[in-house]
Amino acid sequence: MNTLRNELKEKYSQIPNELITDLTLSAGELRVLLYLFTKPNDWDVYNNDICKQLNISEKTLTRYWKNLLKSKWLRRERKQDEKGKLQGGYIYRIGHFTVSDKSSETDKSSDHTNNKPNNKELTNKDAYFEEFNELWSLYGKVGSKSQAFNKYKSKSFKKTKDEVLLAIRRYLKDRDILKANGEFVPPMKHFTTFLNNIEDYLEFYEPKQQKQEYNIFGV
């Protein structure tokens, strides 16, 4: 017969039994959540730190975040000041939520259409197309313009123009840093692909490391 004796008396965290036996979480997702359990309130959440400590890639962590935020154990909301004005960053909350519970951010996004027209038959004459053109030009006109426009104007794409601008600038800045560091710079993603994965440069973004002598201006 195998016997377990727990001799840990300090530097431990209390973990709900239901979490330990929750088979909806992968082993990696559970490990990330347990790592968060070890941190005090108001601890700054940094992707680079989690990746380093758990020896996982940013891409893997991004996937874990998305699944954890759909689980009953983790919620996230945008930071706000005392007047309710949105600030940079998010507050991550560990708890036991019903699966149907949404963070305030998610609730807003479910009703948020960015004031976009709901008609999917928009034409090039729409002022909305002019807005897209600005983003298309800034990105570099890579890929199919019509496909990218259809994605941008779709009801399912709940990102504002300012959010897309921010994501584009971050993406281009990361490419500039790779080039300045003499590292391999992959081909530009088609704009539709970029829009499909835009959260990587909004919700889970952390800038690439840059050499000390190289300065990056902007966002």
Mean pLDDT: 79
Pattern of helices and strands:
HHHHEEHHHHH
Strand content: 5-15%
What's the domain count?
2
Helix fraction, binned, reads 40-55%
Shape: elongated
Derived from helix and strand composition plus strand pairing, the structural class reads mainly alpha
Main sheet attributes: strand count, strand direction, barrel closure: 2 strands, antiparallel
Q: Could you give the order of strands across the largest sheet?
A: 1-2
Give the distance, in angstroms, between the N- and C-terminal Cα atoms: 60 Å
CA-based gyration radius: 21 Å
Number of helices: 9
Q: Report low-confidence residues grouped into runs of 5 or more.
A: 102-115, 117-124, 212-219
Q: How many β-strands, per DSSP?
A: 2
Describe the structure.
- With 219 residues, this protein is mainly α.
- It has 2 domains: 17-110, Arc Repressor Mutant, subunit A (Orthogonal Bundle); 112-219, no CATH class.
- 41% of the residues lie in helices and 7% in strands.
- It contains 9 helices and 2 strands, in the order H-H-H-H-E-E-H-H-H-H-H.
- The chain has a two-stranded antiparallel ribbon with strand order 1-2.
- Strand 1 (74-80) and strand 2 (86-94) form a beta hairpin.
- Helix 2 crosses helix 4 (58-68), helix 6 (127-139) packs across helix 7 (145-153) and helix 6 packs parallel to helix 8 (161-180).
